[in-house]
Specification:
- The protein is of the alpha+beta class.
- The protein folds into 2 domains: 116 residues; 112 residues, Protein of unknown function DUF881 (Alpha-Beta Plaits, 2-Layer Sandwich), CATH 3.30.70.1880.
- The chain contains 8 helices and 9 strands.
- Strands 4-3-8-2-9 form a 5-stranded antiparallel β-sheet. A 4-stranded antiparallel β-sheet has the order 1-5-6-7, with helices on one face.
- Helix 3 runs antiparallel to helix 4, helix 4 runs antiparallel to helix 5 and helix 6 runs antiparallel to helix 8.
- The radius of gyration is 22 Å and the shape is globular.
- The termini are far apart.
Length: 274
């Protein structure tokens, strides 16, 4: 019975759904829409409502950052760690502290951007500068541009006991995300919010691309934290070695090049709240 449950879990498609936040239409007239970044910048220069909307969005993001930081701190307080070893507790604490640090940094940046807009002599020009700055960061997060930086490369061989499942491979991705990975690539697939991994008759497929063993995952972030996320005792690395008979190798690198780009995604059913 346990084997049947495990097989069922292995065959389950995994993935996350993208959170859709479609901005309000920024237009001069009801019949026109903004189709390019340059048009958006022109709207910032000429439309007071648009400038006010950008400032409001920054305030909302600032509030969200504070809320997430609070929830991360609550997670430390409310979780039981009785079954974890000392090394596991240290690693988990480091991961949580990294998450809190990132959120506090984001909050500080958003606060600085808001102050910069409010105190600038030329508010239009400052909004344009911040908008371009945020666009560059969002391009990396959305997978529309290549990226490089320090990080790790994880190589996972096919299991000798049984084939590596989609669920296990996706767990590796999630553990790297939780450890603070800023950019991830698996095989030739750029990992974004909509990325999935599923079992098929021909093997594992991610975002429509067939993955071949050995599976190579590259991640940019804190090298030590990322390696600990994989090699922590009783973690995903141990699970792959014990349950699947896979060889899991983690190599820290001073420069990890992530060149795979995410495919554009068209929403057929999701609609924005006006």
């Amino acid at each position: 019975m346990a084997e049947e449950n495990e097989k069922e879990a292995d065959s389950t498609q995994t993935g996350v759904f993208p959170v859709v936040e479609k901005p309000r239409k920024l237009s001069r007239a009801a019949s026109s829409t903004i189709s390019s970044w340059s048009e958006f910048l022109r709207e910032l220069r000429h439309n007071r409502h648009t400038r006010g909307l950008v400032s409001s969005l920054i305030l909302i993001a600032l509030g969200a950052g504070v809320g997430y930081a609070f929830m991360a701190q609550q997670r430390i307080t409310n979780t039981s760690y009785d079954a974890l070893s000392e090394s596991e507790l240290v690693t988990l604490l480091d991961e949580t502290n990294n998450q809190i640090t990132r959120l506090e940094t984001q909050r500080t940046q958003l606060s600085q951007q808001l102050d910069s807009i409010q105190t600038a002599n030329n508010k239009q020009q400052e909004i344009e500068r911040i908008a371009q700055e945020n666009k560059d960061a969002n391009d990396i997060l959305s997978g529309s541009t290549a990226a490089y930086g320090p990080g790790i490369q994880v190589t996972i061989s096919q299991g000798t006991k049984k084939d590596v499942s989609a669920a296990s491979l996706f767990t590796v991705i999630e553990e790297l995300r939780n450890a603070g990975a800023e950019v991830i690539q698996i095989g030739d697939v750029r990992v974004v919010t909509s990325t999935y991994v599923t079992d098929t008759k021909t093997g594992l497929v991610s975002d429509g691309v067939l993955l071949e063993a050995p599976y190579v995952i590259k991640a940019i972030g804190d090298k030590t934290a990322l390696q600990n996320a994989i090699d922590i005792s009783g973690g995903v690395g141990s699970s792959l070695r014990v349950n699947y008979g896979s060889t899991v190798t983690v190599v820290q690198k001073s420069k990890v090049d992530i060149t795979a780009l995410a495919h554009s995604f068209e929403y057929k059913y999701a609609q924005t709240v006006e």
